[in-house]
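User: Earlier you gave me the apo prediction for this protein. Now I'd like the version with pyridoxal-5'-phosphate bound, so I can compare the two side by side. Same sequence as before, with the ligand SMILES added.
Assistant: Got it. Here's the input I'm using:
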Amino acid sequence: MNDPANLEFPPETMRAMGHAVVDRAVTHLAALGDAPSCGDFEGIEDLCRALVEPEPLDGTSLEAVLDPLFEQWIPRSFGTPGPGYLAYIPGGGIYPAALADFIADTCNRYTGIWQASPALVQLEANALDWMREWMQFPKSARGLFTTGGSMAMFNAIAAAREQRLGTDIRSGVLYVSSQSHHSISKAARLAGIAHDRVRTIAVDDDFRMRVDALQAAIASDRAAGLKPFMVFSTAGTTNTGAVDPIDAIADLCAREGLWHHVDGAYGAFFHMVPGLRPLLAGLPRADSLTLDPHKGLFLPYGTGALLVRDGEALRALHGSEAGYLPANQNEFYDPAQYGPELSRGFPGLRVWLTMKLLGTDRYRAALSEKRGLALWAADEIAKIPGIVMDAAPQLSLFAFHLEHPNLPTLEAQNAATRALMQRVTARGRVMVTGAQIGDRFLGRVCVLSFRTRRAQIEACVEDIASETAVLIAGDQAI
Ligand SMILES: Cc1ncc(COP(=O)(O)O)c(C=O)c1O
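And here is the structure of the complex with pyridoxal-5'-phosphate:
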């Protein structure tokens, strides 16, 4: 403390700080099952106002910040890592990844260019290559770890735009379905494809992109002198879990010479399980694929990935040189040659270390279990009087609504379905959310947290059954 410019901590202090953090984190994880899945938001606005603070000119003790973090602030959030989190698309937070981040952050080696940390970059390349194999992409494919699915989408569009349009960007047209994730339109905007060059294709009764409508839209754009260049299909939509007819869309894209991207942010990792591959037929034919390890690989938020079949297309977009850096080499994977960043964290280590510690077969078992739980839950929920199943699980997500003589209008059914999600969530055992699709509000359940087991799914079915009974009884103010 006598030398304020010395920012180093003594080794014993660092050890003690590390122990204190691990202790808190592990205690927190052990209590997740008893915490309300929806979090506790009582008085949250006042809390946020009170949190506004001036810069801390003097340092404080670790304990002084760990107390409010773990006791007040972390509990006031959705219970995303908890076993009862069946809302949106569940994330992960598997423990070895946190250790990998700790190692990556304390050792702080530079993984932007291969020459700076060749062996570490190779571990990242290995993790990408495992994904390539699971997705049955060719050896010539290359990939990139991103911070999430949205950034994977952005890089895919930029690569396709560069290869297919060159400088003629305004002519290019890109196709999504009405059920595609909104991050695609946002990524298109970022990549220079304006909103008037993004076409939204209708879906069929199962929420899958209509290939005939896609074909017609492409023809109409060609007739108007525009250049269709890219189609997005989805391997598991966020709203209902629908898997687009990927094979048929791949056929159409091949005939029309279009870049076919598959958004597998939610569903692609089910392709790791050989027995589930038929559910995603055609996925290995994609020109590029969004993966979201912070969903289907149960990793912490901040881990997305992109695979591009023609690895050179990714390199053509990102490859660059600078006089002050070592010359590019071609033998080994080099992150800055395949992605937009130069200085960066070390995202590959959390993937690599987790796979090494658990072994990938345990992932296959867990993913199969989650799908089995969703199938079981959907069967049970479909039997509940008053529930209409709109989308049975293709992977591990399903959607439904309430319909009953006591709910005679669409408005009444929507309000009751919305209330069902809220009332089930308020019970605290599981958190579920719905989605507005056209004029209908659908309730949904998505099983993807590695911590979700049979007990939470039984609780989900029980709570949906009891709250449905209340809501269709007709005397409940919604
Ligand atoms: C199907 C789908 N695509 C893309 C995304 C966007 O991914 P991220 O939130 O990792 O940016 C999501 C997020 O839930 C998704 O469900």
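For your comparison, keep in mind: Residues 362-472 form a domain with the Aspartate Aminotransferase, domain 1 fold (CATH 3.90.1150.170).
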